[in-house]
Write a structure and sequence with these properties.
Layout lengths: L8 E5 L9 E6 L4 H5 L3 H14 L8 E8 L1 H12 L7 E5 L10 E9 H10 L4 H16 L7 H17 L7 H12 L1
Parallel strand pairs: 2-3, 3-5
Antiparallel strand pairs: 1-2, 4-5
């Protein structure tokens, strides 16, 4: 999937006038329910990816990534094939380990969201679909840049970075409620 052409749109972010620093985002929306449920989904996903890239704390220059707004069946198939987990999940991030070809942008990888799972989570968590989509795109892009949440310390760093990026998009800390519950359980 890395480097696949988009069936949606292609947007380029420039951090400076220097074209060598451009970042291209390929967006594919093979699941039409995304646009029906959230007409601005393409814009929201791009904004979230651009914010994550700009505020990741990692140098990103002359790069390309793809965002895929898919359905649960697609994500389930990818999850089974690449992670040996036969179930859908909200977001998958496939970081590229390809070295950049001479004169070509660095391929960061692919971020894939599952429609039904994301919608259900947004409802369960009392979030708007727009905010949850932006959170998961930020989360996925940070994975492409090497952030992880397997161990406690890296997870806290990743969540802290996500919280800052999401705040810049006007989105409340998605971990606040979970942390409040954890603190309350710890006191009891």
């Amino acid at each position: 999937m890395t480097g696949a052409t988009a069936s949606g749109a292609r947007e380029t972010m420039r951090r400076a006038i220097d074209p060598a620093r451009a970042v291209a985002i390929d967006l594919a929306i093979p699941c039409a329910r995304w646009r029906r449920s959230l007409p601005a989904v393409a814009t929201l996903a791009r904004q979230a990816a651009l914010a994550a890239l700009a505020q990741s704390g990692r140098p990103v220059a002359r790069a390309e990534l793809s965002l895929v707004l898919a359905d649960d069946a697609t994500v389930r198939m990818l999850n089974a094939r690449w992670r040996d987990q036969d179930a859908p999940t909200n977001v998958l991030a496939f970081a590229s380990d390809e070295p950049p070809a001479v004169g070509r942008p660095r391929l960061l990888g692919d971020v894939v969201l599952a429609f039904e799972t994301v919608v259900a989570e947004a409802r369960q968590q009392g979030k708007t679909l727009a905010d949850h989509v932006r959170h998961l795109v930020v989360h996925g892009v940070l994975h492409l840049l090497g952030y992880d949440h397997v161990a406690t310390a890296p997870a806290r760093r990743m969540e802290a970075r996500e919280t800052v990026i999401l705040a810049s998009l006007g989105i409340a800390d998605p971990y606040r409620m979970r942390d409040a519950v954890r603190d309350e359980v710890g006191r009891g």
